[in-house]
Amino acid sequence: MQRSSLPLLLLVGIACLGLQPAARADSTEAYCLLSRHDHTSPVESGPCQFSQRHGNVSVLMGRRWAFRFEADQQGTGYQRSNSEQGIRFSRDGNYTLDVLWRRALQCKGPIQEPVSVVYLGSGDQSKAHLALGGQQRLLQRAVSGSGARYTGPGLELWEHQGETRINWYGTTLTCSS
User: Fold this and answer.
1) Cβ(127)–Cβ(139) under 8 Å?
2) Which of 61, 90, 164, 175 is such that its CA lies 20 to 30 A from the CA of 131?
3) How many domains does the chain have?
4) pLDDT confidence of 2, banded at 50, 70, 90?
5) Is residue 25 pLDDT above 90, yes or no?
6) What is the extent of the structural domain holding 62?
7) pLDDT digits over 89-104, tens only?
8) Which CATH number goes with the domain that contains 65?
9) In 64-154, which residue ranges form alpha helices assigned H by DSSP?
10) Which positions ≥6 away from 28 have C-beta within 8 Å?
11) Is residue 16 situated within a structural domain?
12) Residue 156: pLDDT above 50?
């Protein structure tokens, strides 16, 4: 190796040390509930995309809503509270956005699509938002002798003793969390 190329190699080596891989955001599909504090509009709900990078959060809710929560504004521009079910963002006097985590299910049956569910509310008024592949359905709580049962036209989700059974338009899936 020639002596004149050594400084060039050293310079290239130092430059490579300064390169860092691009930081990636943590993103996931979720289910969102948006409620206005002045109660002029009904609660809006539906699938949403949650992303977080360096504590900064972005939430896309359909084509209508895009929310941004900067980490350095937490406690002053908005309040954030975390739970096992998801994250709540509240802007005083304006709105509250609940981001609920989808629970992935491992299913056996003829359908080989990803399956996930979000449970909304509690008691007789609760609902389940079921996603199978790219299809999503909102199911209403139904009477059940045991376990939790939710139904919709052509659909049934029944959770009992750690097992979830889904009837998707005549096709049965047996799932676990």
Assistant:
1) yes
2) 90
3) 2
4) low
5) no
6) 26-101
7) 999 999 999 999 999 9
8) 2.30.29
9) none
10) 49, 50, 101, 102
11) no
12) yes
The residue out of 64, 79, 101 marking a domain boundary is: 101
What number is the average pLDDT over the span 46-50?
A: 95
Kind and range of the H or E run holding 172: strand 171-176
In angstroms, the CA 161 to CA 176 distance is 10
Instruction: Name the percent of the chain lying above pLDDT 90.
Output: 67
Is residue 171 within a helix (H) or strand (E), and if so which, with residue range? strand 171-176
**Distance between CA 50 and CA 58 in Å, rounded?**
6
- What residue has token string 């504590």? 55
Cβ atoms of 129 and 136 within 8 Å: the answer is yes
Q: What share of the chain is helix, strand, coil (3-state, %, to 5)?
A: 10, 55, 30
